[in-house]
Amino acid sequence: MEFRHRAFTQNDAEFKELFGVKKETFHQMLAVLSVAYQERHQQGGTARP
Known about the structure:
The protein is mainly alpha-helical and 49 residues long. The protein is built from three helices and no strands.
């Protein structure tokens, strides 16, 4: 948890060095993945035999 907190509080240059993308881009990617994850897991279904 400590690493995540430090990573998001760093300036843009340090953040990009750690993750390879800008903070804005990272948050956009996270939003897209969150929506896709929710859509995939909301359907439910029956158990496999």
